[in-house]
Amino acid sequence: MPQWNQATIVGVGLIGGSIGLAMRARGLAKSIVGVGRNQESLVDAKRVGAIDRSTTDIAGGVKSADLVVVCAPVDKIVGLVQEIDRHCPAGTIVTDAGSTKSEIAAALDQGLTNARFVGGHPLAGGAKAGPKHADACLFVDRTVVLTPTRRTDAAAAEAVEDLWTALGATVVWMKPKEHDEALAFTSHLPHWAAAAVAATTPEKWLPLTSTGWADTTRIAGGDAALWRQIFTSNRGHVLKALDKFEKVLAALREALEAENDAKLEKLLNDGKNRRDAVGN
Fold this sequence. Notes:
- Residues 5-280 form the Prephenate/arogenate dehydrogenase domain.
- This is Prephenate dehydrogenase.
- GO terms for molecular function: NAD+ binding; prephenate dehydrogenase (NAD+) activity; prephenate dehydrogenase (NADP+) activity.
- InterPro entries: 6-PGluconate_DH-like_C_sf (IPR008927), NAD(P)-bd_dom_sf (IPR036291), PDH_C (IPR046825), PDH_N (IPR046826), Preph/Arog_dehydrog (IPR050812), Prephen_DH (IPR003099).
- By secondary structure, the chain is α/β, with parallel strands linked by helices.
- The protein has 2 domains: 4-174, NAD(P)-binding Rossmann-like Domain (Rossmann fold), CATH 3.40.50; 178-276, 6-phosphogluconate dehydrogenase C-terminal fold.
- Helix content is 50%, strand content 14%.
- The protein has helices at residues 14-25, 39-47, 58-62, 74-87, 102-108, 154-166, 176-200, 211-217, 224-233, 235-257, 261-276, and strands at 4-10, 29-35, 53-55, 67-70, 93-96, 116-118, 120-122, 143-146, 170-173.
- The strands form 2 sheets. The chain has a 6-stranded parallel β-sheet with strand order 3-2-1-4-5-6, sandwiched between helices.
- The mean pLDDT is 95.
């Protein structure tokens, strides 16, 4: 029996499209509606089966929804949720997939009339964007962070947890600030480092790159405007992560310059051991 009568996905790209496919595969909604600005992307989403119908009108897309998932750039989420709130039925559960949480939580913690908002962030993605690459199993065995506040409706938060659990994810609850501090190290700093490595490499040596360079810089291929928004919305925590990163780089350089091979190997082993602890 479907849990939702109408689930509306605002922003049907890789993440939104994968949510639609996953919900459909598990029979979680009677109807799945896609809302977006790009008509071609909406057509692709319907073609792959991520949504039943689409619209570019957000008011029309949410007027009958009992669940809305916002998969949009972080600087658009607050405005979208506020617009959804003006047009959705009273009690509609609204959640998001934004990569930073503090600013969003602070802006939406009060002032909503109809929507019951629950902050969320699925730690999943892929090298290719768009609904053509959506995957119904994208969230299986992946972590989804929920960031409710003291004002968050408890029943709504539990319903969003049940949704992600049904999609195969492991749900972790964190405070918005705690989430942003952690993700500065585990997501934002890696992208920063990947972009720096790619930008540092002389173009004439690119034909000599192999798997090491490709693995290290893969995420640097992400949308620059999207990542600029993520960095600036989590500026304080990213800067603290960079402080620590720069200290480690300085220690590695100092060991190399001083011909201190033992210290250099120890620092490299520190990194290896931390990486090995992840286990994949």
